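Title: Comparing notes on inverse folding

I've been comparing how different people in this forum approach sequence design from structure. To keep things fair, I'm posting one structure and asking everyone to reply with a full sequence. Here's the target:
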């Protein structure tokens, strides 16, 4: 009974810390967002500034009037009030084109000024359960925070993951990097994993987006069963492709341990976090967003690979002006270690900015 009460207390403290962090980041976003530029910036939002699942053609391209400034006024039927010669009409059209160019430059200037400032793009909260052998299970509450900013000719973005976990039994590969955990269970915070990415400005238009950078794992776990005990670093990439109703994206990284607890094992980890989405209707999507596919090079044979297959559905909605999405997914591990998780059920709630 005392153990149960202690675990509940740890979970509540962790939830309060997570809620405080999310609230602080939302306040930072609200304080740094420019007041008057939001309506103008929306058409030019880049992949780094708009969560993958909410991008549309308008958010990956310039406004048509800006892309074709000469047509900006012709589309609304501007014509001389009297009959003119061809040369007069050409002079009028040239004036319209100049005005259109000016409008396009204003939109781009406002967009650049906004995106250069630090801003949140999304916060994902998920609750999922690992089903283990021998009818055991582990419960996890996770947070992923994505932000973006601009410096000079480059766009930067960051995505950071951390979890509050209640493990009945330690699991190889959970959290990421914890290839050979210490035996027993535990309750508390897991390690923090963060990726930093950079791409040239205005290189985000079109169906493809690519950014490169590095990933860093911080051994912040509060229990030996929830932490690798190792600092890790390595290269990372982010890629996305969108065409019509379909979106495919992933974050990939290869990290190596370079410090930390000398009694814990060396880690070499390759990890991909895939994201597949298909629009069924304006608010409904089929989704595949697993915990991740991982390969531990220091393991033997097939035990080094964790491969989940599955998916679910996502529903998008608004609460006031806040864009949100909720999803429910199920996964089966077709490749795993002997005592690794057999299956996952995952519920996720996302706030998009």
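Reply #1:
Here's my take.
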């Amino acid at each position: 009974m005392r153990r149960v009460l202690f675990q509940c207390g740890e979970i509540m403290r962790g939830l309060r810390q997570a809620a405080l962090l999310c609230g602080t980041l939302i306040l930072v976003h609200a304080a740094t967002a420019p007041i008057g530029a939001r309506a103008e910036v929306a058409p030019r939002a880049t992949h780094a500034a708009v969560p993958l699942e909410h991008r549309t053609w308008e958010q990956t391209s310039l406004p048509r009037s800006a892309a074709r400034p000469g047509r900006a006024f012709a589309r609304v039927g501007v014509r001389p009030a009297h009959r003119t010669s061809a040369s007069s009409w050409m002079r009028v059209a040239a004036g319209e084109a100049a005005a259109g160019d000016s409008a396009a430059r204003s939109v781009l200037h406002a967009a650049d000024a906004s995106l250069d400032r630090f801003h949140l793009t999304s916060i994902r909260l998920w609750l999922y359960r690992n089903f283990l052998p021998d009818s055991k299970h582990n419960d996890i509450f996770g947070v992923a925070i994505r932000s973006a900013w601009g410096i000079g000719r480059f766009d930067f973005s960051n995505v950071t993951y951390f979890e509050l976990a209640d493990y009945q039994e330690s699991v190889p590969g959970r959290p990421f990097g914890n290839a050979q955990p210490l035996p027993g269970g535990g309750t508390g915070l897991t390690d923090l994993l963060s990726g930093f990415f950079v791409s040239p400005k205005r290189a985000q238009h079109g169906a493809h987006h690519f950014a490169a950078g590095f990933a860093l794992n911080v051994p912040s776990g509060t229990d030996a069963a929830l932490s690798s005990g190792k600092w890790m670093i390595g290269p990372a990439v982010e890629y996305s492709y969108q065409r019509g109703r379909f979106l495919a994206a992933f974050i990939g990284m290869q990290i190596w341990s370079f410090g930390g607890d000398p009694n814990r094992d060396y880690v070499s980890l390759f990890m991909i976090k895939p994201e597949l989405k298909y629009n069924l209707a304006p608010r409904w999507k089929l989704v595949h967003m697993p915990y991740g596919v991982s390969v531990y090079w220091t393991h033997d044979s097939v035990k080094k690979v964790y491969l989940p297959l599955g998916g679910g559905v996502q529903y998008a909605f608004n609460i006031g002006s806040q864009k949100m999405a909720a999803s429910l997914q199920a996964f089966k591990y077709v490749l795993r270690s002997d005592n690794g998780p057999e299956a996952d059920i995952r519920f996720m709630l996302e706030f998009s900015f």
